[in-house]
Amino acid sequence: MKIAVASADGVLMSQHFGQSRCFIVFTVEEKKILSQETRDNTYTAHAQGQCQGHEEHHHDEHHSHADVIAALQDCQVLLCGGMGWRAAEDLKAKGIAPLMVEPTLTPEEAVQQFMDGTLKPGGGFCRCHG
Question: What pLDDT score does 60 carry?
Fold first, then answer.
């Protein structure tokens, strides 16, 4: 199984799926992390610098998450601090379970807690996406 964690910097979990700079993808088996790799996020508007600041904003039309989801297509789970509901629905439609958790956990802690069944939900839909 592969579990992706949205990361702000390759070390910490990102508070927002679309603003993540990369995704740390963990390969796990029998409740153990076997390996991890980092995949740069060059797909979302936030990551490309098209949305500035942290002010509330609205997207007038549905923007596609197809490219970023394609980059994660081999993952079964995505952990992050928060995301818009459209991104969550698009991930689910492609068989990737989005889970919003407390971004204070390290990616490794979040993955281990997920595998142990002790991961507590946190975060939620981002205000900028309704």
Answer: 42
